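Objective 1b of the project was to move from sequence-level analysis to a structural picture of ligand recognition. The entry below was assembled by the postdoctoral researcher (A.K.) and checked by the PI before modelling. It contains the amino acid sequence of the target and the SMILES of the bound compound, zinc ion.
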Amino acid sequence: MTKRVRLREELSRQRTSLLTEWNFSLVPPSERACYADPADQASNDFEQDLAIQVRTRMIARLKRIERALQLTQTKSYGCCRRCRKAIPYARLTVQPDTLFCVSCLARMERKHYRH
Ligand SMILES: [Zn+2]
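Corresponding predicted holo structure:
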């Protein structure tokens, strides 16, 4: 039970640091300036695209963490979604938002399955 509390704390900690990062990444909308040189404009656009990609990944991560936090309230937390076996605690400490055990994940990756 205390293990679960520790994992909940880890999840909250990761959520907090993600939200902090998120705030930093939102800083420069004012830098969406117009450049006289089209090359500068292009590189600025490229950076904007990159920033959007980073944010999309952060949202996905945040959603996983939120879901895991909700799952910690239920019995299914820490059980593999696929084979229903318990996910080792060592793995959960590294990645508390994981939904699958290592062998299922490996099997899914062999099938080129991405979720
Ligand atoms: Zn499994």
